[in-house]
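Repro:
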Amino acid sequence: MNKTIEKYAYLLIDIVVFAAFIVFIYFNKNATVSYFCPLMQKMYTTKLIYLALFIFLVSHCAGFALCAFFKTKVSALVDAYQKRHENISIEKDSDKAKIAALEAKIATLEAALDSALKNK
């Protein structure tokens, strides 16, 4: 799948979820919710809007943090791959230099052998 299409699909899904959230808040603006807090051992009553906004904001912050974590992990993997690629290319250059040095030594030895055979 094309990355641009994927990005637009995710953006469209995010907009639809946000619009659904706004519609939910609009139709339940006067509703209240009671919940029990186990730490304080009390029952609390709050408007549904505040609870929904809190959950919405926390989930978006958590999603952002999760994406940032994965982005740093992927960045670290990309950096490691680039270093490995550089090391491989350096080794190839080093191998080419070794081959050139050996060819120069062979040429020198062949010239020395030719001159030694001519002097006999």
